[in-house]
Design brief:
The chain has eleven helices and 27 strands. By secondary structure, the protein is α+β, with helices and mostly antiparallel strands. The strands form five sheets. Strands 4, 5, 6, 7, 13, 14, 15, 16 and 17 form a nine-stranded mixed beta sheet that branches. It has a six-stranded mixed beta sheet with strand order 8-3-2-12-19-18, with helices on one face. Strands 1-11-10-9 form a four-stranded mixed beta sheet, with no helix packed on it. A hairpin with a 7-residue loop joins strand 18 and strand 19. Residues 1-5 have low confidence and may be disordered.
Amino acid sequence: MSVENSWEENIPENLTSYWLDSVELPSFDPLTADIKTDTVVIGAGITGITTAYLLSRQGLKVTVLDAGNILDGTTGRTTAKLTAQHGLIYDHLIKEFGEEKAKQYYQSNQDAIEFVRQLVVDLNIDCDLAEEDAYIFAETEEDKLKIDKEVQAYEKLGIDGGFVDSLPLDIETKGAVVMRNQAQFHPVKYLKRLVDEIVAAGGQVFENTRVMDIEKGDRPSAITESGHKVTGENIAVCSHFPFYDKEGFYFARMRPKRSYSLAVKPKENFPGGMYISASKPKHSLRYTSLDGEQLVIVGGQGHPTGHKSNTDENYEKLYEFGDKVFGIEDVPYRWSSQDPETLDKVPFIGKYSKDDDNIFVGTGYRKWGMSNGTLAGMLLHDWILHFDNPYSDLYSPDRPHQGHNVKKFVKENTHVAKRFVKDLVDLSEKTVDDLGYDEGAIVSLGGKKAAAYKDKDGELHVVNSACTHFGCDVKWNCSERSWDCPCHGSRFYYNGEVLEGPAVKPLDQIDPDKKQ
């Protein structure tokens, strides 16, 4: 049997996260009235829930708003590595910020890991927390040079770890850099307990409540899609990608990227540890358990959002990698996720803009949200309560940019502008009649462009092709049957409803039978 046939036979058709499928989460009603609170938290992922938990523990009344269901975003679709080893980051940070700031980055993430460890003990949370070493491995001589520089950075910063020449896995490697005493856990089990604690402390949670705008003032308000207001002393925007474009211009300072995961039952025993490749596309490994058996999370194959249509190929390549390393018996789950990356690779955590004293943000975790998202909750707690924090300047969204980051900013936004102009003049030669079953594409309809999907029953679903955030044409994502924007990462269901921001408005539906 070929690898291709094995993949096609074993891969599940539906995208389902193991973390979300293995836990029964509470449900909450949508907001149906104006309310007042102490702090409004927008977004119920790891950052929003951690922020809300810490503030409610201080006696504040907290209201959490989520556009969908709690934890049903990137937090529920992670690889769930709780580590300060965020790829080959420390050599970069020393060059970008200097040794002192680089050490702060490491120590702040270590503090976040220790916070989780202590909270698990204090609240007796059963979340499969396990101490593991984390490895970045080199598969080529070029990778080995990068690993050597990272090892030197570890030595300069006093990081517990260093170079190892082999791995306990069937991977040909030129060596690896290890970070000792890191951790992995079940994020949904952990955060479910924090949600319970928030509610027990008098906090409120509202699901299916999309925030469309923020009304600034001494007591700012979050304005929801239904027109209701939630007013508080402070607002914390923890919505993964900030939707509020009037301040901060985060859409122009970050790049969203997608990544993919398979949860597989291995034929050979997985030896423990957490692993990621130095080369691109990344390959990541860690284990958990399912009904007493090992389940290995094979992740990676990332790319900029909206820059690839045949995303099924990403799952196939992950399958090939996992099958080569330890053999694959079965694939119970597959899923994907998205995370934005800042130009200097350090998250934005702090005041939404330099002029805002009561609106805050946490974003830009670069696919390392378990530690960075926890850290963001800790920092936002301190910002809101006016507590000093030694890491505030490092993560401030208003931090000064180095010269080459200005060049990155110009390059990134020039690319977006060119794509926008190109999308305005290009007209697809494809029509709805050219679409096969379960196929989507940009088509020409009545002399205008449209985004069309023909489902498995042959029914057409047609929407405006221009993203409602900036106007770039969306691109079809075949494995998730979604329309993804290549400019700033907004994503929409095939019927036009918003799936991920920064867009907050849906794509307009078009009647394919109506004369345009």
